[in-house]
Design brief:
With 167 residues, the protein is mostly helical. The chain is built from five helices and no strands.
Length: 167
């Protein structure tokens, strides 16, 4: 895991920046659609679907970056009442649960991707986008989340080993 971690974290960082640029692109696409639809009275046939797929990619693929930065929504009213060692234990347990859940979703999304590719599924819209493209976001996002949760578990266990002081 020590050799894999720097690679995954650099990949998460790159994906995080790409997602930021993609969110900007999505905003521009939707602005273009609004101008075309309401000012020019000539709506596009591609903007909404494209924006939805960009949104899927940014939210799913970018989630591991968010977790890596410690920016996921977290309700810590109970955790804050625990001593430092109890916080580490709870964080480690919850991260293990997160890793298992994300691993399961990763496995299921891989099966879905295999089926989609095997049957050549396309979007039911005019664009006829191969569905493995938007579905790939689910696989990539949850794969990266699985690794990131595993790294958090390792960090919390190391903190426990150090006497509950490190995080």
């Amino acid at each position: 895991m020590k050799k894999l971690r720097p690679f995954v974290e650099k990949f998460n960082l790159a994906v995080g920046y790409i997602c930021g640029i993609a969110i900007l692109a999505m905003g521009l696409i939707l602005t273009y659609e609004v101008v075309c639809r309401y000012l020019l009275e000539a709506p596009t046939i591609w903007a909404q679907e494209t924006a939805i797929y960009i949104f899927m990619w940014t939210m799913l693929a970018g989630s591991a970056y968010t977790l890596m930065q410690g920016k996921h929504v977290r309700i810590d009213i109970v955790v804050a009442l625990l001593p430092k060692r109890g916080q580490l234990v709870l964080d480690a347990v919850m991260s293990m649960v997160g890793a298992l859940y994300c691993g399961l979703i990763t496995w299921q999304s891989l099966e879905m991707l295999r089926s989609t590719i095997r049957f050549g599924k396309l979007s039911p819209t005019f664009l006829r986008i191969p569905m493995w493209i938007p579905q790939g976001a689910l696989f990539l996002g949850f794969s990266l989340l699985t690794f990131q949760f595993a790294f958090i578990v390792l960090d919390k266990l190391a903190g426990l080993k150090d006497g509950g002081e490190a995080q």
